[in-house]
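How a chain folds remains the central question behind the approach discussed here. This step matters because it turns folding into a mapping between discrete strings. The sequence in question and its structure tokens are set out directly beneath this paragraph.
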Amino acid sequence: MTHHMLCRLPLKILAWLAGLVCLTTGADVAHACACDTISPAQGFARTQYVFVGKVVEAKGHTWTVDVDRVWKGADRLAARVRLLDVYKDMDCEFYFEPGRAYLFFAIVAKSSRYVFYQPEVCNWTSALRSKRVTSPHGEIWLEDLIVENYGPGEPPKAEDPWKRLPEHERDERD
């Protein structure tokens, strides 16, 4: 073997090993969405609903949320809503932990007799006390900035369409 061939052999082995590592670990790696940076005010302006709620149930990538306060869309939002992750198995999928409260920036995902909402990708949806933002008074929690800019919010006002379904049908639709 020539010196040139001996040098190429380790490079081929190294490339093969790198490919093998990518194949074996790539399926478990979480990828983040590639999003442009927006301000909380821009996020508020572009979404249909802004509310705080606690996740009370999770089934796959569908969550039931008890809504506490609403800053945008209170007239059309019920006290209990269903969130649907249309980005399941994609780079932008969501995960919400039952028992935890979140600030949601959402849009209607499916609107029929029974409405599903979708957390808006590349917006500010996040767990409470998890994101700090800059305000005129310094750095504060995102939800505190929402209260500072838009007031204390209000309770949801719409009727829960899911309450009209018999219990056994609710489970089938989720």
